[in-house]
Amino acid sequence: MLLKSKKEEIIKDLEGAVKGSKSVVFVNFHGLKVSDETVLRRELRTGGVGYKVSRKTLLGRALKGKAEGEVPKLDGEVAIAYSKDEIASPREIYNFQKTHKGIVLSILGGIFEGKFVGKDRMMELAMIPSKEVLLSKLAFLLKSPMQRLAIAVGEVGKVKGK
User: Fold this and answer.
1) Domain 4-128 is classified in which CATH homologous superfamily?
2) Residues 44-53: pLDDT tens digits?
């Protein structure tokens, strides 16, 4: 049993994590082995994402008044993944799920743009590619028509030169 002072310390720690973050993801990690959780924490840390495990009652107290709407239903054993980047936390959790087959980890919902959102909305955010990937796709899209134009002009030059 936790002492009241320890509970208050945990709540303040959770409040600080939520307050300083642009997005928070609620994660059900039921059945996750300690070794897998260590790998998860390491990968999240390299992606700039924090990860905290907490009791649901303490998490509920920490979340009170932190966002608009209703807190999504938190089933099972719950942790939060949080970051200063809007989509880093859902994306990193999603990528971990994808790359580590057989590990049971599910997104329950989260906080995005100051509102509590459900699982579906967090999954949409998680599937958005990183900024670097989007920029490279944009560069490719811009390069392709210019390349085709250069080839066409070159071919016209060859025909006119004959």
Assistant:
1) Ribosomal protein L10, N-terminal RNA-binding domain (3.30.70.1730)
2) 999 899 999 9
